[in-house]
Amino acid sequence: MMLFLILILVQLAIAGTVIFVLKRLLDRELAKAAIEKLASLKAAEAVEHVIVYYASPLPSSVEAEIKVLANRKFTNGKIVFERLQSLRGGVIIKVADEILDFSLSSRLENLWS
């Protein structure tokens, strides 16, 4: 009986580690996709705000890349980073009226609908 409990606990630990690693990888890939989409937008001086919503803190390299790209494309725009727990992962970038939704919550919602 004790061996069975140990095996279950080991499996739970392994499963938890795998899920953690996969979520981190998915977060990174979603952020990369959002950056690519942001890069494909046309430059516009009329944009006042670029708002980046994230679930977990973005790596500094990703945050810096978004800042540089947004400053280059939207010279008059102020870049704001805001944490939004409901995303579960990934990012949403709002540029004027356009929303670039690369969040894990929307991906899961689309999967189930």
Describe the model.
- Helix content is 55%, strand content 21%.
- With 113 residues, the protein is of the alpha+beta class.
- The chain has a single domain (2-112), classed as hypothetical protein PF0899 fold (2-Layer Sandwich), CATH 3.30.2320.
- It has a 4-stranded mixed beta sheet with strand order 2-1-3-4.
- The longest helix is centred in the first third of the chain and has 39 residues, at 2-40.
- It is elongated and about 70 Å long.
- The N and C termini lie far apart (42 Å).
Helical fraction: 40-55%
The structural domain count equals 1
CATH architecture: 2-Layer Sandwich
CATH fold label: hypothetical protein PF0899 fold
**Strand order within the widest sheet?**
2-1-3-4
CATH class: Alpha Beta
Structural class: alpha+beta
- Uncertain spans, ≥5 residues at pLDDT below 50? none
Number of DSSP strand runs: 4
Mean pLDDT, to the nearest integer, reads 90
Q: Termini distance?
A: 42 Å
Radius of gyration: 18 Å
Binned strand content: 15-25%
Strand count, sense and barrel status of the largest sheet are:
4 strands, mixed
Label the overall shape.
elongated
- Secondary-structure element sequence? HEHEEEH
**Number of helical runs?**
3
